[in-house]
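ping. complex inputs:
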Amino acid sequence: MREEDSNWFAKWEDELPSPEELMPLSQTLITQDLAIAFDIRNSNNTNQTDIINTVVNSPQANSSAEFDSDMGGTRVGGEGGVGIGSGLDEQARTLKRPRLVWTPQLHKRFVDAVAHLGIKNAVPKTIMQLMSVDGLTRENVASHLQKYRLYLKRMQSNNNGAGNGNSPGWLSGSGVDTAMDRLFASAPVPAHFLRPISEHYVPYTPGTMQVHHPQIALQAPMVGHGPQIQQPFRHFRNSPPNEQFEHPFLGRQSQQQQVQRIGTPIHANGNGNSHHGMPTSYVESATAANGRKVLTLFPNGDD
DNA sequence: ATCACAATAT
DNA sequence: AATATTGTGA
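pong. complex structure:
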């Protein structure tokens, strides 16, 4: 229905960070590179509110020393004297930016972005755009995403034996609890990020799909009205079934199990066409049916 | 161009 | 240890 759609969006909007949270993240008037080039610091805030600025002086960030001395001597990438006009762009291009520090707040943004984008759109560029943090690059996000996926993977395999769904499995097990783990744990992992890794993942097949052998059933969502069901996952790249498929977060998984038809696809919405650029995500609800867990994926994670 | 991923660098 | 960069193959 149209009504549901607006609610859906409103809810999504409600979950956006408050203005207080946003304030430190708001856009600056000049690019990071230029700010660095001219040694412009954030004047209006004494503390480390600016996400990117908190970064600047990591011990490893020798970079600032390079810029501090004076503009004449500083050159990062083999660019000599800086002409007044063109030198700036050149410098902005070649300047080393400080390392990004992934604060819990920033990570939360990341997670929110991924959650709201939905699996198929959660790629570095899109994530970066949705996060809209000034100075954040696609590479920053890609690097973080890569690590985050490893974290999710690790978390899943560790959690698999001990049905302890809630408490972090990696704490009890061979767990590691590094600082990174704590960062990743600082933002709740949306349920639909986690899938039982047990090789029982099934890519979408036209018509619906279910996993058989495992005790996990996977139900595909229906999006829109037509005969089309939206793929919950990206397909493995044109390879035949029963080989491998590409899990959005867990990478290539081998698929041995047979696909079995179960359940009814879920309709995302009545009219089905107000979607467009809207962020779409999926949520899973675990239901017990005959000792079988059914994971249902809905469009939009807010329900 | 962008992505994912592993390996490697800082 | 945390993040960046690079290389490779989609």
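Residues 171 and 177 of chain A are 7 Å apart (CA to CA).
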